[in-house]
Amino acid sequence: MQTIETYQKIFLEYLEQFVEDKEPKNLYQPISYILKLGGKRFRPVLTLITTEIFDADYKKALNAALAIEVFHNFSLLHDDIMDAAPLRRGKKTVHEKWNLNTGILSGDTMLIMAYQLFENYEANTFQSLAKLFSKTALQVCEGQQNDIDFETRNDVTIIEYLTMIEYKTAVLIAAAMQMGAIVANTSKVEQNSIYEFGKNLGIAFQLQDDYLDVFGNPEAFGKQVGGDIIENKKTYLFLKTLEFSNEDEKLQLQNLFSIQSENNADKIEKVKQLFISSGSDEATKNAIEDYTQKAFSVLETLNIKEERKIILRQFGEYLMNRKV
Prior knowledge:
By secondary structure, the protein is mainly alpha-helical. It has 16 helices and two strands. Strand 1 and strand 2 (91-92) form a beta hairpin.
C-alpha cells in the first residue's frame, strides 16, 4: 500500500498525460484548464486505494479513477454555469474565461470522455463499471435538481435533505470506491459493503462542508464563510434550527432567509447565532460523527486484512479532520 500523498502524485502524473491540447482548441483547452485547477483528488485516490485494499494492482484502476475525476469536474463545470459562479478554486470559471456555449459543450465532451475511459477494460469489467457509472451520474443529476428545487420550497424535510446530499455528493464517493472493488474483481458482497462505506463517509463529508461554510476559518476554508447563508440555502443547520426553535425564532430565521440582504456580514452573524442558540450547530457535529461511525462500522464486515481496515479508517479520519 502507498501513502495518500503517493497515490495523489501518481494520479496527477497520469492526469497530465490525459489533458493534452487537441483541436479544436476552444473545446479541449477548457477541459485541460478545469482539470488542472487543483483539488485534493480524493475521489480517484479512493479508487486506487480500494483496488489495492482488495489485493489488486492499483495501476489497473487508473482509468476508472480518471473517469471519476473527469466526471466530477464535468459536474463542477456545469454547476458553475447554473450558479453563475465567477470563480472556481480562486480562478475564473470556464464559462467566464471562455463563454457559456463553450462551457456547455466542453462539459458535454467531458462526460463522453469519462465513458470512453472504461473502454480500456475487458468486457465484463467494462459492463460493471459503465452500469455503476450510469446509475451514479443519474443520481448526481437528480441530487442537483433537488438542490435547485429546495431553494424555492419552504417545506423541505431533514430526510429529503439527506437524500439530496447522498445523491449530489455521497454516491460519487461510494462509486469511486466500488469501482476499485470492481477492477479488483472482488465479490458483490464486498463491492456493496465498500459502497456503503463510501456513501456514509460522503454524507458526513457534505454535512461537514455545511458546517465549515458557517463555522470554518475563512483563511483555511478558501472561500467566503457564510456563502450558504447569503444564498439562502436550506442546509442541515437551517433545517435543524427550524426543528429546535420556538415560533418567534423560526419566523426570524425564515425572514432572514427570504431576503437578499445589503449587509451580508450582519445577516451571517444573526443566522449563526440562531444556529448556536438552537443547538443546531451541535446537532450537525453529532450527525457528522454518526455518519462517520456508520462508515467505520461497515469496515468490520469487510473480508480484508486488519491493517487495511486501519488505512481506510485513517483516510476517513483525514477527511473528517480537514478544516477546508
